[in-house]
Amino acid sequence: MIPSEFEYYRAGSVDEALQLLNEKGPDAKILAGGHSLLPAMKLRFNNPGALIDIGGIPDLSYIREENGYLVIGACATHAQIATSSVLASAIPMISETAGIIGDVQVRNKGTIGGSIAHADPAADWPAALLAADAEVVIAGASGTRTVPVNDFFQGLFTTDLNESELITEIRIPKPSSETRSTYIKFEQPASRFAIVGCAAMVTRNNGSCENVKVAFTGVSAIPFRDHQLEQELEGKVPDESNLDAACEIAAKSVDIMGDHFASQDYRRHLAKVFAKRALKTVTG
Amino acid sequence: MATFNLQINGKNQQVDVAPDTPMLWVLRDHIKLVGTKYGCGVSMCGACTIHLDGEAVRSCQTTVSAAEGKSITTIEGLSEKGDHPVQKAWLEMDVAQCGYCQAGQIMSAAALLERNPNPSDQEIETAMNGNICRCGTYTRIKQAVKTAAANSQS
Fold first, then answer.
1. Which CATH class name applies to A7-53?
2. For B62, which residue in chain A has the nearest alpha carbon?
3. CB contact under 8 A, B57 and A109
4. B62 touches chain A (CB under 8 A)
5. Count of Cβ atoms closer than 10 Å to residue A266 Cβ
6. pLDDT by residue (tens digit) across A176-196?
7. Which residue, A1, B39, B93, B98, has fewest beta-carbon neighbours within 10 Å?
8. CATH superfamily of this structure's domain B85-153
9. What is the DSSP letter of A25?
10. Do the chains contact at A39 and B44, CB–CB below 8 Å?
11. Residue A244 pLDDT > 80
């Protein structure tokens, strides 16, 4: 398990990392917690010529509330996020997601920025961040830009991130106190990646559901918001029959993945089951 | 190559290695602390688990650069005489079969008990699920963690 040869640089600041990215060109990749990229390199799925380690940049792992947003530094580890009291009280779905990623050792080193930059189709973060309407702050040579997470994930291991850019922050609008959210998954028992992961967020107004947001990971090559399912439930007072009706159309308009863990049919079935469980949790 | 000043098991150690060298190889090949085991090398099995500032991490994916300035503990440094409550419970319950995974298992268990001295069954499973045992001694591992917790409290 030895990766092919690469150069290694440890950046002391975001500016230095950007400068190194610019110098080394498209052959360079950013290294944060190292729990996706390094295994991929050892398995020879990926062989960048240079790694630029941003794990040593001070103050890129903050978690705080700021002008109605919950902001998370790109290098915050899953363990930091899972145990943040700011997030647990404001948006439990985010803490829940962080707490069930991989295992203890992965959570202690893996970072939120690294995970979404890697864009594994079975990763947990995309569903929760899509349901939360998060934004990704990206730094490049010409300054920073902010991209809705909905436009960020573009395909299998493919994002809106350019070769010369890196993620610095995740921004999540703070939900109202009437909003409830959860993330649950059916996991592959060895890797603990999601075979189907479902995030749901619902605001209640006099009993009826408003701003219904349901997002899936693991189901399709691209994580997605299920707008059809959401529309089916929007404005309704949830009960067994209308939850069933909404979940029956889960993942209807996407190309569903099939592999040796779960066939397309089984994944579609799991999408319905996990949407129902998640929605029951947030409306019960 | 670069020089790194590491704090390993309470002692300062200087190594001259490439900055991307995994801590696993720094420990085994340079410091000659071979209690930490190489299992899969790709962050799946947990055999190489060590503590960085008291947190369980995989040394096969942790570069020496990321470990510098932190307190590193390996199985050799967990206790002076091999009498950490988890190590004692391990002997008491005869946990090991082939024993290859146990250094990593013990490091994960010790990190768990440090932050949660009296874990539930569910909490033990969650905390230990990053460590694979090919002999399937999971039942004894769980018993040993509970024994260690009980013995530490009494």
1. alpha beta
2. A34
3. yes
4. yes
5. 15
6. 999 999 999 999 988 889 999
7. B98
8. [2Fe-2S]-binding domain (1.10.150.120)
9. G
10. yes
11. yes
